[in-house]
Write a structure and sequence with these properties.
By secondary structure, the chain is an alpha/beta fold. It has a single domain (3-308), classed as Alpha-Beta Complex (Inosine-uridine Nucleoside N-ribohydrolase, Chain A). 38% of the residues lie in helices and 19% in strands. The protein contains 13 helices and eleven strands. The strands form two sheets. Strands 3-2-1-4-5-6-11-9-10 form a nine-stranded mixed β-sheet, sandwiched between helices. A two-stranded antiparallel ribbon has the order 7-8. Helix 1 (14-24) packs across helix 2 and helix 1 runs parallel beside helix 12 (241-250). The chain starts with a strand and ends in a 15-residue tail after the last helix.
């Protein structure tokens, strides 16, 4: 049976690939897309989500709900220096397209209650919406079967500071609260997992570009927007932690190593704000998450390659940026 899920996202680059996975993978039953402040400007994130659905030929099939436009306590921090607009300047005519009027936090609570014990949430942006839903309705945690989080690093380097991964850095209070809330939590970390097993080098990218479907062309354009930045910081390819997070939910056979950890997030230090302390079982702390330590990188690439080979007809024409 397909897995009922919601994707909570700050749509840019690999978030788009994650949404495509939720839309097109036969193992997924995507109930909703919820938006949270993160990578790029909030309204741009919403446009990116609609664009992605349109590329998949799925415009109008999945509702989009708007959530928190700011972290719980702090000003929003963007990653526009990395992503630009998040989609390489691509756009569609947005006439007649609008998100739902229900707030994303309320939608998360409602959908979880309607699918109690069955719904999985894939959180690939800051955890603001998830923290607010858990605070508003104490049953929310129990109604969610599993929470899959792209966030933190497993005692490794950050990607926005030396200490912190972006999603946990933007709203560390939310991350800390979610990890203490009692969810059945699975974490896909930036370092070491993403940097070892979810980087597509130029040969991989050339394989995808040669496919020639609308989705493959879309993938190539959005990845190109961040590739120069990745290489400037020593990453030899494009990074795909968000789509990996959806993939390991839908295809757990991709996971080759995981372990229970106690995970907490630093909120009190400017120097290490958002740092994820992942204790591997020798410090007397009860585990609160399963952390993915390794995946079959070749199988993951084949999964994404097959995904972008889907012969879709975009719902609306795609506009490319003019020179």
């Amino acid at each position: 049976m397909p897995v009922p899920l919601v994707i909570d996202t700050d749509t840019a680059q690999d978030d788009c690939v994650a949404i495509l996975t939720g839309l097109l993978d036969s193992a997924a039953d995507l109930k909703a897309i919820t938006m949270v402040a993160g990578n790029v400007g909030f309204d741009q994130q919403v446009r990116n989500a609609f664009l992605t659905m349109s590329v998949a030929g799925e415009l109008g099939t999945v509702p989009v709900y708007l959530g928190a436009r700011q972290p719980i306590l702090r000003p929003w921090v963007s990653a526009e220096n990395v992503h630009g607009d998040g989609v390489g300047g691509l756009a569609i005519d947005m006439s007649g397209l609008a998100p739902e009027t229900e707030h994303a936090v309320d939608a998360l609570i409602r959908i979880a209650a309607e699918n109690a014990g069955e719904l999985c949430i894939v959180a690939i942006g800051p955890l603001t919406n998830i923290a607010l839903a858990a605070a508003k309705d104490r049953e929310f945690v129990h109604n969610v079967k599993a929470l899959y989080v792209m966030g933190g690093s497993n005692n490794g380097r950050g990607n926005i500071t030396a200490a912190a991964e972006f999603n946990f850095y933007v709203d560390p209070e939310a991350a800390k609260a979610v990890l203490a809330a009692g969810f059945t939590t699975v974490i896909v970390p930036w370092d070491r997992l993403t940097l070892r097993d979810a980087v597509f080098d130029q040969a991989h990218l050339d394989e995808i570009a040669a496919i020639g479907t609308p989705i493959a062309d879309f993938f190539t354009t959005i990845v190109a927007a961040t590739l120069d930045f990745d290489r400037s910081v020593g990453i030899d390819g494009s990074t795909h932690p968000d789509s990996l997070t959806v993939a390991v939910l839908l295809h757990p056979e991709l996971i080759t190593a995981s372990a229970p950890y106690h995970v907490d997030v630093e909120t009190g230090s400017d120097l290490t704000r958002g740092y994820s302390a992942m204790s591997w079982g020798v410090h007397g702390l009860a585990p609160n998450a399963k952390v993915i330590e390794a995946v079959d990188a070749d199988a993951f690439f084949r999964h994404i390659k097959a995904l972008v080979a889907h012969p879709t007809v975009p719902s609306r024409p795609i506009r490319r940026p003019t020179a």
